Amino acid sequence: MEFGFSEEDDAFRAEVRTWLSGHADVPGDRRTWERTLGAAGWIGLGWGEAGYGNRTVSLPQQVVWAEEYARSGLPARSGHIGENLLAPTLLAHGDDVQKRRFLPPVAAGEELWCQGYSEPGAGSDLAGVRTAAVREGPYYRITGQKIWTSLAHEADWCFVLARTDPDARRHHGLSFLLVPMDQPGRIEVRPIRQLTGTSDFNEVFFDGARARVEHVVGGEGQGWRVAMSLLGFERGVSTLAQQIGFAREFAEVVRAAEETGAVHDPVLRARLVGQWAELRVMRWNALRTLGHATGPAVPGAPSVAKLLWANWHQRLGELAVEVRGATATAGPADWSPASPYPLDAAQHLFLFSRADTVYGGSDQIQRTIIAERVLGLPGEPKGAV
Ligand SMILES: Cc1cc2nc3c(=O)[nH]c(=O)nc-3n(C[C@H](O)[C@H](O)[C@H](O)COP(=O)(O)OP(=O)(O)OC[C@H]3O[C@@H](n4cnc5c(N)ncnc54)[C@H](O)[C@@H]3O)c2cc1C
């Protein structure tokens, strides 16, 4: 399939642009902004199934929406996890009652979600999850700890990967539970302070928290299958939009380099050109991947894409501060280590992009996937790390 935009898509783009520019000053807090988007029908465009308060549009139009949103510079979406991770998972594995209960509030921007996978002893090795869920009448009683849980401090619900069969090992005996954050059982959310001074993610402690039995997705013991399928939704249409965001950041770095004169430094200049060329290649690659979206999956493609963008973005962060020279390291005069410090965009980009090669599957894990599943190299010894 050739991927391209038709006249209808161009008309849709004009509609999106008009709406977004009309709301450039409206956002307010992030929760209100989600409701505004939901009320205007912009959430759930890519669900493929309508009838849950969402409308569906073609693949090119999903790309248009995502691109225009990224171009607008409007705030990052706090509804992303519900819309792009939970919803496709429910559509694939949920029963009708679950879909009818959980999808409409996501489409309306009313309920926000977080992802409870990682634990202190289970990140790359997710099958090591130890959080336990024990059946008690109509509920599961959950005890354990999650970590790095993005947006847990804002979320209404969390999807939790937990062990429902204590005797089963590794990826057997896990279940995918939908857990309300506000409930009689104890759930404590402790923010983790990051290099950037902000706290976008948290530790989450479950101490007798409850999930209803009918809120297990895909059936008890099927959690690994459901959890892995969700990770497959972490990519796709959003890749092109992400590159629009990257292009904006790149333009900003070039502008700074012009301002400081760094464009005349032959080494920095060559690196800027290299970054630009790689960004073009990533865009063509993403368009090609979308062209194959309805065909068989290309082995290793998601891992290759993740490796490329994460490393590209991290190098852009380094360039963003290097083109500014020593001034890039200066903080405001009134900064005190006790208070969150304001960072400018380049400093934030440099610091936050350190995480790019970790979340969503680290570089090392992507290389292992490519080694084993694409190149057919021998598997790494179990328990080697
Ligand atoms: C910004 C950010 C947001 C996140 N949000 C969420 C979230 O919302 N929900 C959630 O559940 N998790 C979230 N995470 C967690 C993320 O999924 C994990 O950090 C990631 O899976 C890596 O796990 P880990 O941190 O335990 O590191 P580890 O798995 O302990 O890895 C440490 C290092 O060892 C390397 N390593 C590990 N195993 C191997 C191996 N077999 N071979 C070679 N090298 C290996 C890794 O590559 C890494 O460099 C987030 C992380 C970040 C940085």
Q: Give the ligands present.
A: flavin-adenine dinucleotide
The number of helical elements comes to 11
What sequence of helices (H) and strands (E) makes up the elements? HHHHHEEEEEEEEHHHHHH
Report the portion of residues in β strands: 5-15%
General shape: globular
Q: What is the chains' assembly state?
A: single chain
Classified in CATH, the superfamily of the largest domain is Butyryl-CoA Dehydrogenase, subunit A, domain 3
Helical residue percent band: 40-55%
- Annotated CATH architecture of the largest domain: Up-down Bundle
Question: Can you characterise this structure?
Answer:
With 385 residues, this protein is of the alpha+beta class. It has 3 domains: 101 residues, Butyryl-Coa Dehydrogenase, subunit A, domain 1 (Orthogonal Bundle), CATH 1.10.540; 109 residues, Butyryl-CoA Dehydrogenase, subunit A, domain 2, CATH 2.40.110; 139 residues, Butyryl-CoA Dehydrogenase, subunit A, domain 3, CATH 1.20.140. 43% of the residues lie in helices and 15% in strands. The chain is built from 11 helices and 8 strands. The two termini are 42 Å apart. Flavin-adenine dinucleotide (FAD) binds next to β1, β3 and α11.
